[in-house]
Write a structure and sequence with these properties.
By secondary structure, this protein is mostly helical. It has one domain: MFS general substrate transporter like domains (Growth Hormone, Chain: A, Up-down Bundle). The chain is 73% helix and 1% strand. The protein has 19 helices and 2 strands. The chain has a two-stranded antiparallel sheet. The longest helix is centred in the middle third of the chain and has 34 residues. It starts with 15 loop residues before the first helix and ends with a helix.
Length: 491
């Protein structure tokens, strides 16, 4: 890895090479959680666990995450090496990804003991989460420390999110096609596992190693290290703006994960679609919100408030979800497609904006606390992202089992799956899991975004105050009024 010391100028404009090298690292961040949300519930059920048992595996792992994510933030903040604070973890973590996937996707359908099987998958998911934490917390912090320039960070995050969304599309779309083949008995579980482990493991690991080698940390590293304490774990939660951002992120991404986790069975049993793969619906949703990137980017360049862009499409999102959830089975397969366009356009702000807002909130935290402990903030953000997967799988698993869902069975020898017709109660459960939690979560996300009163003018002022704290005594009357409003509304 490059041993060069960080350049003195933190306000540097990044080269295209460095922006690109950083952005490809988010193939893992944008893809792995989408893959797990799409695949893991179905994978565990097809290996013999109940949907509820699968959900509890994810929820137990979140207790572990509640410790490791903030802890990794503190560890990363306190790291002092000739490579920087973040790069070593990305480099090592890149090599650990394939190993974690190897445990995560072990085909255990032939194992007779349900208890033993349950604990193997639980330990596998705990290990996967540990590797994910080691990577994602430093990576998220890295994004705020390559440059302090407000507009340069927006450029970098735009490129990053393009790669993130592309990876999310591949990581959800390809497994959906494979799951459909699995569900129809056209592919053995062993082949599916091999593709997940080697195919996606390499797809995620190589870009992260490139990020660690090429990119540079530039913001000054605080001399004083943080002490390992619960107070430091939760310190970012003392910033009101950060709490609003966490709620926005949690509720918005839980909605997408609920869609991904249930799409294969919802399309097959709830809508009875026969004309095309459920991948088509997901692809239309993702292409529709990806098409909104230039629109959002243009508005950000015109200094339109990012929280406003986040919530602007939520009403349309809600309308689309209700239409999809109530769509009559076997009515007309192709009239579903424009509904997916509505959902994609509506969700665009929710999916795109949180990581654009994150650096601005970290700046606000530095202004309030007097130190830039980005790892603590990104630790809680990473925990929130993984929690969305847990929420999606737990809700989905519980509702499916309560509604009488008949789980598929997998042949011990061949690894081929046999699926069964579902009772009306299970079909209703699949519809309700798509509509009810998503509508409630979107309303909560809208309220949180409404309270986050950050805009470009305030972010620029915050940056100036961080660079020159003495400015607080000499600022203009307008700036002083704005500063007092920031403290009252966002501190």
């Amino acid at each position: 890895m490059n041993m060069q010391s960080p350049p003195a100028n933190p306000d540097v404009k990044l080269s295209t090479k460095e922006r690109l090298a950083f952005s490809v690292g988010d193939l893992y961040g944008g893809g792995a959680q989408s893959l797990v949300a799409t695949v893991y519930l179905v994978f565990l059920v097809m290996n013999g666990l109940s949907a509820t048992a699968a959900g509890t595996i994810i929820m137990i792992a979140k207790i572990w995450d509640a410790v490791t994510d903030p802890l990794m933030g503190i560890i990363s903040d306190n790291t002092r090496s000739k490579w920087g604070r973040r790069k070593p973890y990305l480099f090592v973590g890149g090599f650990c990804i394939i190993v974690s996937f190897g445990f995560l996707f072990l085909p255990l359908h032939a194992m007779q003991s349900q208890v033993f099987k349950y604990f193997i998958y639980l330990l596998a998911y705990l290990f996967y989460n540990t590797v994910s934490t080691m990577i994602m917390v430093p990576y998220s912090s890295f994004a705020t420390e390559m440059t302090s320039n407000y507009y340069e960070k927006n450029k970098m995050n735009t490129m990053r999110l393009i790669f993130s969304m592309a990876s999310g599309a591949v990581s959800a779309g390809v497994p959906i096609v494979l799951l459909e083949r699995l569900n129809k008995g056209e592919m053995p579980v062993q082949t599916f596992s091999l593709i997940m482990i080697l195919g996606f493991g390499i797809f995620y690991s190589v870009p992260l190693i490139i990020t660690a080698i090429v990119c540079q940390e530039r913001l000054p590293i605080p001399e004083e290290k943080l002490k390992f304490s619960f107070a430091n774990f939760i310190k970012p939660l003392k910033l009101r703006a950060f709490v609003y951002l966490l709620l926005m992120y949690l509720f918005a991404f839980s909605c997408m994960d609920i869609i991904s986790a249930n799409l294969v069975w919802f399309v097959s049993y709830g809508l009875n679609v026969e004309s095309y793969s459920s991948f088509i619906l997901l692809a239309i949703i993702m292409v529709s919100y990806a098409a909104m990137i230039p629109f959002h980017n243009k508005l950000m360049k015109r200094d339109v408030a990012k929280p406003l862009l986040f919530r602007a499409g939520i009403p349309l999102y809600i309308i689309g979800i209700i239409m999809l959830g109530l769509y009559p089975a076997s009515f007309n397969d192709y009239l579903i497609l424009p509904i997916c366009v509505i959902i994609g356009i509506g969700m665009s702000g929710c999916q795109l904006l949180p990581w654009f807002i994150f650096p601005d909130v970290v700046d606000l935290g530095e202004l309030k606390f007097g130190s830039r402990n980005t790892g603590s903030f990104s630790g809680l953000m990473t925990f929130t992202r993984k929690t969305t997967v847990a929420v999606a799988i737990a809700i989905s698993g519980l509702i499916l089992d309560l509604s009488g869902f008949v789980k598929p069975t997998t042949d011990y020898v061949t690894g081929l799956v046999t699926s069964y017709d579902q009772p009306a109660s299970a079909v209703l459960g699949l519809r309700m899991v798509i509509v009810v939690p998503i509508v409630l979560f979107l309303i909560a996300a809208f309220i949180a975004a409404k309270k986050l009163t950050l805009n470009a003018k305030r972010s620029v002022l915050i940056g100036k105050l961080i660079a020159d704290p003495a400015m607080v005594d000499t600022m203009s009357e307008d700036d002083r009024t704005e500063y007092e409003a920031i403290k009252e509304e966002l501190f």
